[in-house]
Amino acid sequence: MKKILLIFAFLGILFEYNLPVISGASAISSESIVLQKLIHRKEAVKRQAEAATNRIEEIEKEKERAVLDMRTLMEQIEEASSDLMNIQSKINAATAKLLVTEKQLETAIHHADERNVQVQSRVVMIYKEGYVPYLDVLLHSASFSDFLQRADSLLFMIRREKELFEIAKREKRIVEQKIDGMERLLSELSTSYNELTFIKKTLQVKEKNKEVLIASLASEVEELEELTEEQEAFLLEVARTESELLRKQTASGSVKFAYPLVKKARLSSGFGTRTDPVTGKKGASHKGVDFAAPAGTNILASKEGTVLVTDWISGYGNTVIIDHGGGVWTLYAHMRSIDARQGDNVKKGEVIGEVGATGKATGNNLHFEVRVNEKAVDPKPYLGL
Predict the structure, then answer these.
(1) In a shared domain, residues 194 and 62
(2) Fewer Cβ neighbours under 10 Å: the N or C end of the chain?
(3) Residue 171 CA to chain centroid, in angstroms?
(4) Of residues 302, 366, 353, 310, the one with CA closest to residue 330
């Protein structure tokens, strides 16, 4: 859409530029109007191009930040994946250990049950038969010492059965505690695994969003770069048309410049050949006009433009050169002081320095030139003199 608008804008200007010419005066007027429109359009497109360039720079910075964020997210996802693998390994190991421990519990329960059955059998036998078997053993003793020995043996057997039963119960409790601990560990590991899985999924969503953002920014940059290329092409075409219009106007002397001094001064030397006032050489070329003015008189920019030169130039002394576009320059020489700076955008009538006598000068004066495509032309038609 922006491309179409640029094309139509330029076609509109060209249409106005190619209006039928009725008379010389009307042609000059028409060209002046078109030139002004070209200048305004050019400035507007320049601003648009600058805005697009600035936006591209902002997007590139934003894209760099997004890429850095994405790298961080990828590192975090990788770290979460590693942690998940570690937790999964621990879960697998704990599960395997739990299975072994459960088998140990089964064995311990079996042993305890066996001991319990043995003890219960003894109790039942005693209940049914009393202590007869034990008494038989004691009554059939050969002697009193044999009796005591047999009694000790019976007591030992009873204590031993009781101890074995307690050991079996204790082993069962220990195994049960191990299983409880393993189940708690598995529960904690499972919770950690679920939390890390959620974190990883969240990070992956963020990563996907960053990918979409980076792709969107890249697409916007591509569109803006295409637009800036179109704007540059448009500006180039405008500059060519503007240059052609200025060439026609300068050829006819219709381009008007402001008087370059704050007040009128005597024209002390004209454009063309003359006798050099310093060397006395006859037929010397004079590429501008000289205005005899008191030292310190303000020198004004004859037209808006960009300052190209603010320097000492041999023969010219302190010199300012301003580019007015379309290949048209103005030159101001022999200045006592310079107020403008290279690169400044000056307005028509803006003070750029003071009259002096620097360089090859016989007195205080302003040497003023107009150059079209670097070729000096007579400034008087431009100043309406």
Answers:
(1) yes
(2) N
(3) 67
(4) 302
